[in-house]
Amino acid sequence: MTFDGTWKVDRNDNYEKFMEIMGINMVKRKLAAHDNLKITLKQTGDSFHVNETSAFRTLELDFTSGVTFEYSLADGTELTGTWTIDGETLKGSFTRKDNGKLLTTTRVVQGDELIQSYNYEGVDAKRIFKRC
Questions:
Q1: What is the rounded CA–CA span in Å between residue 6 and residue 24?
Q2: Quick one: DSSP state of residue 56?
Q3: Which CATH number fits domain 5-125: 3.40.30.10, 2.60.120.380, 3.30.1300.20, 2.40.128.20?
Q4: How far apart, in whole angstroms, are the C-alpha atoms of residue 75 and residue 109?
Q5: What predicted TM-score, i.e. pTM, was given to this entire model?
Q6: Residue 71's pLDDT band (boundaries 50, 70, 90)?
Q7: What letter would DSSP give residue 76?
Q8: Would you kindly state where each structural domain of the chain is located, as residue ranges?
Q9: Which among 26, 25, 28, 7 has a CA at the least distance from the CA of 115?
Q10: DSSP H or E segment with residue 17
Q11: CA separation for the pair 27, 96 (Å, rounded)
């Protein structure tokens, strides 16, 4: 499947500003910008198994396209929402439990890169991953 593989973060675009708007303190923002995040994705039909490994945590997650689930960011922010398959794009729509605000994200594969884009409170950011 399109998303299958292991992906290691290569570079960020406006990620620190995005984290600031999300309310993540400066120390955690600096650390997260260099977290060496590695994501392994395995897609089976509409279901996904995800393994995230970084300098801060290891997380395994299973989700199905269109089915609501709960998720915690590395800083502890709790979310509820869905990932949905839209052609060759995964679209995420998540609501923060603490303030009810919407975080949207997409994942798309272009060549040997997985591009994860975020929007929160009008601030856009990207994390670009290279296939391992």
A1: 27
A2: S
A3: 2.40.128.20
A4: 26
A5: 0.93
A6: very high
A7: S
A8: 5-125
A9: 7
A10: helix 15-21
A11: 21
